[in-house]
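COMPLEX REQUEST
Ligand: iron/sulfur cluster
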Amino acid sequence: MDKKTEEEIIFAARAKSVDSPVDPVRLKAEDRFCFSCHGGVSCWNKCCHGTDVVLTPMDILVLSRHLGLRPQEFLLEHAITANWEKADLPVAKLKMTGVDGQGACPFVTDAGCSVYEDRPATCRYYPLGLATVKMKGAKDKEDFHFLVKESHCKGHEEDKQLSVKEFRAEQEVDYFDRVNRGWMDVLMKMASWKTLGGPFGKDMTPQTKFMFLMVSTDVDALRRFVLDTKFLEIYEVDPETIEVIKTDDEALLQVGFEWFKNVTFNESTIKMKEKVLQKAIAKAREDIGAA
Ligand code: SF4
Ligand code: SF4
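STATUS: Structure written out below.
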């Protein structure tokens, strides 16, 4: 890792092989590369076998809708839970068939991907990877891309040339990125804090990891958590947002990640109601014997 780098996360680099196929050159939006994937390539569908596809929150929503399943049903049938080691946090991954997940993706057919219009972000990005980096002292994070060049992928030998920006537009990844941003922020922060032993020097508890998995994978459980518990008595959520999140899953995810960032990293992404805050302060003062 670059010495000047404070936080870095590499995401959406689907790769079959463990030998690093990542081309270390950082690509900007206007940078161009040769690539084309179509039914005529000799490697057709090779990348859809034994591959590692982390499911983002948005992937779970769109694939569940595509299959007419609730997210929990979709996850039970098509996903496994794995530890994303960089951040030591649980994520859902697409369940490949075969021994040790080395078989075909459940959605691949001879004609290609049967869920193509709703395929996961990782599949859209391939052969690009997305990295987010925050330089020491910088206020904001910066995204950049890189190429994943695997020897079996003949798409790199095609003549079609396009820029990163054009490829992103073709693959329609912008909306996925917007919805997934809060989730990526948490993964990135934990990846950078892992070396320190988690938030405030402590390891993240199993309960906190469980809540992260719930927020990022199960909007039905998240909706019950926000609307049917004391959540709205504790946190300031404006009435308009409350109405929207009753039916809008993407908006609900944003509230979920704002809450998670607040309780885990103490970020001011969501506010406690004043009377709850005052009560907590009075209790803390009482506990330490202050007047
Ligand atoms: S979801 Fe579609 S593109 Fe992605 S691995 Fe499965 S078949 Fe391939
Ligand atoms: S060209 Fe690459 S992305 Fe397309 S089918 Fe072949 S291995 Fe998969």
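REMARKS: The chain has two domains: 3-189, 218-287. Residues 3-189 form one domain.
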